[in-house]
Amino acid sequence: RKVSGTGYADHNWAKRSLYEIAHSWVWGRILAGDYTIIYADVKYRDATINSRPLYVAKGDTMIIGTGSPTVTQRDFVTHPALARHYPHQVDIDHVEGDREAHIRIRFKKLVEDVDLLAASGLSPVKQWMVRTFVMRPTYFRIIADYSGTIVENGVTVPIGGECLYEIMGLE
Asked: Is-contact 94 65, C-beta < 8 A?
């Protein structure tokens, strides 16, 4: 099948299992005219870690690159089959000197829901053991609408459109 458009690929890796590092995370990328916005809200197992990546680029120049925005998830819905929840609303707010980002992300459609144990290829007995005693990992991909503003050097630029966000749950 032929595909065209702008793409993005990432890879999650670490020296330890991601399960050892995080309970869950919400991650997304927004293409808004000249701006590219990448964000994450990670719930770390180590409560002393407070890193929420936010990167905003204008063209090929990064204008915000920090780990300190305020990210608020709310209006949670529980998936009927997977018994895991995901937010219908994600708000991102950040002020850093003369640069600001204020983004509102609103659920439109769940487009993928995966029980990662069922997809793992483990035997049903092993799946039951992991699900019962260790974790019930899930993945959700959501299409959403976004609106907001990017402020740079006193100039406010409105942004809006459609985006995608993902939720990985390792609890």
From this structure: no
